[in-house]
Design a protein that fits this description.
The protein is mainly beta and 190 residues long. It is built from three helices and 14 strands. Strands 1, 2, 3, 4, 5, 6, 7 and 8 form an eight-stranded mixed sheet that branches. The protein has a four-stranded antiparallel sheet with strand order 9-10-14-12, with no helix packed on it. The radius of gyration is 19 Å and the shape is globular.
Length: 190
């Protein structure tokens, strides 16, 4: 946890999702509260968790937008200086925190304590954090993945449709073409 805390202290924006630190290195649940090692870092305590049946839909509200969930939910009790970004909006969970954010040094720690059905809430939170940090984002279709490593960008198309990548005109294409065919790969440097 020290590395994560140091990252945020020095201006990083750490994002942690549900189920993080629920078990120790031996795969055992903690003998303390759920996810005890991260409670101080996220500025909240996980008081309970739940999953709904496949036909049930939970509702989460963030900035007047509603999101559905039924897969996994942590119910968070926040510490004094922790901001609630999203809350559960129905059933007996109504009003409980689902997503929290805490300022740590020059940066922030955001904990997403729910797994929404289409990951729309998670994407919206990431987009907001990236925008506030001045980073650009892309929204690729399902099955198209882009990675960056050691100075190279790599795109892979696991979908059944062609997808044309938008890359800078100055980029040097090393493998593949800008139009990714199904099972296609594109590697470039900028």
């Amino acid at each position: 946890m020290k590395k994560w805390n140091d990252y945020a202290e020095n201006g990083g924006h750490l994002i942690i999702t549900c189920r993080t630190a629920t078990k120790n290195r031996m795969g055992h649940f903690w003998e303390a509260e759920t996810a005890a090692p991260i409670s101080g870092l996220i500025g909240a305590h996980i008081k309970a968790t739940d999953m709904l049946s496949g036909y049930a839909k939970g509702d989460i509200l963030m900035k007047s937008t509603h999101y559905n969930w039924n897969n996994w939910a942590d119910f968070l009790e926040t510490d004094k200086n922790t901001e609630v970004l999203a809350s559960y909006n129905n059933q007996f969970y109504k009003g409980k925190a689902a997503v929290v954010k805490r300022k740590v040094g020059k940066g922030t720690v955001t904990y997403i304590g729910v797994d929404t059905d289409e990951s729309k809430l998670e994407k919206d939170i990431l987009r907001d954090i990236y925008a506030k940090a001045g980073a650009s984002t892309e929204d690729y279709p399902e099955g198209v993945y882009v990675y960056w490593r050691d100075g190279f960008y790599m795109a892979v198309n696991y979908s059944s449709n062609d997808y044309t990548m938008t890359i800078p005109a100055t980029a040097k294409v090393l493998v593949g073409d800008k139009t990714l065919k199904p099972a296609g790969v594109l590697v470039w440097s900028e």
